[in-house]
Description:
There is one protein chain. This protein has a four-stranded mixed beta sheet. It is globular and about 80 Å long. Helix content is 65%, strand content 6%. It is of the alpha+beta class. The chain is built from 21 helices and four strands. It has helices at 3-12, 32-42, 56-64, 69-78, 91-98, 125-138, 142-150, 156-168, 174-181, 190-199, 206-213, 215-221, 224-245, 248-257, 264-281, 285-298, 304-317, 322-338, 342-354, 358-374, 380-393; strands at residues 45-51, 79-85, 105-109, 115-120. The longest helix has 22 residues, at 224-245.
Amino acid sequence: MNKMERIFLILLFCWVSNSAFAEGIEFFKGSWEEAKEKALTEDKVIFVDAYTTWCGPCKRMAKSVFPNKEVGEVFNKHFISLKIDMEKGEGPKFAREYGVRSYPTLLWIDGSGELVHRAVGAKQPADFVKIGEMVARKTDKSIDLAEQYERGNRDPEFLMRYVSALNNAGKPSLKIANEYLKTQKDLTTDFNLKFIKEAVSEADSRIFDMLIKNKSKIIDITSKEDVDGKIKKACSKTLLKAIEYESEDLLIEAKEKIKHLSDQKAAAKFGTDADLKYYLTTGNTKQYFKVANTYIKKSVSKNPEEIHRIAALTYEKLPTDKKAMEYAETWAQKAFKLEKTYDYAMTLAGLMYLNGNTKKALSVVDNAISLAEKENKPSGNAQALKQKINLDLSK
């Protein structure tokens, strides 16, 4: 297969990246009222995807925009994100209150229910990121608080608001937080425990260790969900640092400290994903294959969704690595054997074709076309691949 054919195939199946790591927007699972409470507690703005199930542009955003890595980086840092079906449950009331008449309507609303920004219609990832960054700048409370800090305001309540605002804006806060905490003789007062929780931003920090040391007390005056959220975000931040500096020590630290999560299954999955992400990004494919194989054989051997996720990730990130594509095909075949779906068939067919197994790929792509009809999905990608395969076989 020549270079142009590889490019064709990679572009044809770029959708598989949406099913790899969950790097896109992490949507809040609670109600609208719960989202507002969370926004007030965390001093954040809520992003609301106001959609309907029949809306084509809504589906396109859900498939190709919300799972996007760059979108996730901006929205997970700055907003609490919520999806609301405008025709079900609390949707109709919400639609009346905020004047939602077309779909998708994209809303940014503060914890008091005040509308901050509105956009209508589907957006491409780059444009959506720009809107998110604009709203984040518009609602960045740390700018005004920085001026007060420079003028000498050191009131504890003010400092907690300032540190929280810096963290919400993705700005460094540890220096200011540590300066305050060093002045405190008793770190176990309710206020100081809340301050520690607000100040946590990275797992490789003294403040994170304070959070863990006082975890049960902090849960008593806040909530288990708040503390778990802080642990997960802090470990994710340390993982990003590990990748940036290619530091296995930081990787190990992030994996160790995530074990303080209440949900040990979630902690274990974070550890595996951390390894996969680190070794893949830093180019250590040998270790990546070892981790992926062990994970598939020992942890998710009967879970087609997870097996397909790893196959799709490998397909997306290492399309020119022959060994990687052989592994990915094996994993995709296992996922498809466990569960016959259009997406799984397409990944397998694409990998077979990429690996030169053209006749097998044709059989699987025919299967994909049938599955698309059953699942009421468009089969354009499958038809395009079938046409390409038939053209190759006729040569």
